[in-house]
């Protein structure tokens, strides 16, 4: 079945969102300073601990947000309210500095995950569906181009392919065992894989906040860019998933890759 003009335009817009320049470029444009300056200022203890903090933040977000949201017939997602919440937490984090990362990041990540699920719901996804829950978590692995990523794994479908086996295995196990202690190791596995890629974006965010004179206002701005980035990833992802349900995964992938 051939894509309608409307659906083709939606796919084209989704690709523009998913293949955008990435968080680092957006932050640099906003604060007017190369993000590399911030990397040089990061203490080694912070750089080495970001991976652990990121995984903890995702784990807490899954427990607090993903499995507490309900299905609904929302036609529009509440993107602005979620941005406000993340900006507020970023402002507080910016005021207290890098020492507040372990407190601020789980809060920000939980709000972002609720926003991602809200966008999924607005695109016709059923939040009670395990595949939708996994797809929401998957969004954190989509980060755009990054010097820290293997270039072979930065494209949208390339990242989905990398995650596919682990997500399918986890989903099957959880579907059988439910969200019990027995299923916990499988959830830890998928969270760990996603956290590795999400951690790249977290490091860029923290590096930007390490630049002198950023402060509370800068922390709010950077967090707004942070959630805006993942809202774009979520919107593109769930548009693609909706079109896949309508036309089939193979056809949508071929059309997506053919778009210049």
Q: Would you give an account of this structure?
A:
With 260 residues, the protein is an all-alpha fold. Helices cover 74% and strands 0% of the residues. The chain contains 11 helices and no strands. The protein has helices at residues 5-18, 23-31, 36-41, 44-66, 79-96, 101-122, 130-138, 156-177, 184-210, 215-247, 249-258. Helix 5 packs antiparallel against helix 10 (215-247) and helix 6 crosses helix 7. The longest helix is centred in the last third of the chain and has 33 residues, at 215-247. It is globular and about 55 Å long. It starts with a helix and ends with a helix. The relative contact order is 0.20. Residues 146-152 have low confidence and may be disordered. It comes from Shewanella aestuarii. This is EcsC family protein.
Q: Work out the radius of gyration.
A: 18 Å
Number of strands: 0
Q: Helix-strand pattern, N to C? A: HHHHHHHHHHH
Question: Mean pLDDT, rounded to whole units?
Answer: 79
Q: Low-confidence stretches at least 5 residues in length (pLDDT < 50)? A: 146-152
Class from helix and strand fractions: mainly alpha
From the N-terminal CA to the C-terminal CA, the straight-line distance is: 21 Å
Helix content: over 70%
Largest beta-sheet characterization: none
Shape: globular
Strand percentage lies at under 5%
Number of helices: 11
Organism: Shewanella aestuarii
Protein name: EcsC family protein
């Amino acid at each position: 079945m051939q894509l309608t003009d409307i659906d083709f335009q939606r796919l084209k817009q989704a690709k523009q969102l998913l293949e955008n320049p990435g968080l680092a470029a957006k932050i640099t444009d906003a604060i007017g300073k190369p993000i590399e300056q911030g990397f040089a200022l990061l203490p080694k203890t912070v750089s080495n601990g970001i991976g652990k903090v990121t995984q903890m933040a995702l784990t807490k977000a899954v427990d607090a947000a993903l499995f507490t949201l309900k299905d609904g017939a929302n036609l529009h997602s509440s993107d602005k309210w979620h941005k406000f919440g993340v900006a507020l937490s970023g402002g507080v984090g910016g005021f207290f500095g890098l020492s507040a990362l372990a407190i601020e990041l789980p809060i920000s990540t939980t709000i972002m995950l609720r926003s991602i699920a809200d966008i999924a719901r607005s695109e016709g996804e059923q939040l009670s569906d395990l595949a939708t829950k996994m797809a929401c978590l998957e969004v954190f692995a989509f980060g755009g181009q990054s010097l820290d990523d293997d270039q072979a794994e930065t494209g949208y479908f390339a990242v989905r392919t990398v995650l596919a086996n682990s997500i399918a295995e986890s989903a099957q196990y959880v579907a059988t065992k439910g969200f019990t202690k027995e299923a916990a190791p499988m959830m830890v596995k998928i969270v760990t894989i996603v956290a590795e890629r999400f951690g790249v974006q977290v490091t860029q965010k923290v590096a930007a906040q390490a630049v002198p004179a950023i402060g509370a206002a800068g922390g709010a701005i950077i967090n707004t860019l942070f959630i805006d980035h993942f809202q774009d990833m979520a919107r593109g992802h769930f548009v693609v998933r909706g079109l896949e349900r309508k036309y089939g995964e193979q056809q949508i992938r071929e059309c997506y890759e053919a778009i210049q």
